[in-house]
Amino acid sequence: MKKAMKGIIAALILLAWTCPSLAGGDRELALAIYKSFKAGQALPLASKEMPGLTLAHAYGVQAALLAIFRSHMDHVAGFKAELTSKAVFSGGLGQVAFEVK
Question: Which sequence spans correspond to the domains of the chain?
Answer without folding.
Answer: 2-89
